[in-house]
Write a structure and sequence with these properties.
4 helices, 150 residues, 17% strand, alpha+beta, 60s Ribosomal Protein L30, Chain: A, four-stranded mixed β-sheet
Length: 150
């Protein structure tokens, strides 16, 4: 059975400052790593989306991710909304929900059916980078895509 494909996408379109790309958490993963895509015909589009994201070209990256999803009309995606650690748990859960809903709305505007896009908020519970720096906070404000059904 193929491993699930996880797509990472920052929902705060301008949240990551351009200086934060030096330690890019979204560079293409190598084979065998947890976030590496299955090596099939989606890989070039997936890698293109990651490269656009790495360069801070968020709208183009989202469009590229939408193209991958269009190639696989049976995939159902859960968009996880995440926040940095600042703020209360309640505030960050609500913010994560708004972030995930905004990503879903944009993907729907690109032609992905809403019923294929589930949302959940994890608030500040699962940081991408545990450091307490502005760069880490920017990485933690994200929408994380998980292919939950193929």
């Amino acid at each position: 059975m193929k491993r699930s494909l996880a797509l990472v996408l920052l929902a705060g379109l301008a949240a990551l400052p351009s200086t934060a790309t030096a330690q890019d958490p979204f560079a293409p993963s190598g084979a065998g790593e947890p976030d590496a895509p299955d090596r099939d015909e989606s890989t070039p589009d997936y890698l293109k989306a990651l490269e656009l994201q790495r360069k801070g070209r968020w709208k183009e990256a989202q469009k590229a991710f939408a193209e991958v999803l269009k190639k696989y009309p049976n995939w159902v995606v859960t968009i996880e909304g995440h926040c940095d650690e600042r703020g209360t748990a309640e505030y960050n859960l609500a913010l994560g929900e708004r972030r995930a809903v905004a990503v879903r709305a944009y993907l729907v505007s690109l032609g992905i059916p809403a019923e294929r896009l589930k949302v959940i908020s994890y608030g500040k519970e699962f940081p991408f980078d545990p450091a307490q720096t502005e760069e880490a906070y920017a990485k933690n404000r994200r929408g994380h895509f998980v292919i939950t059904s193929k």
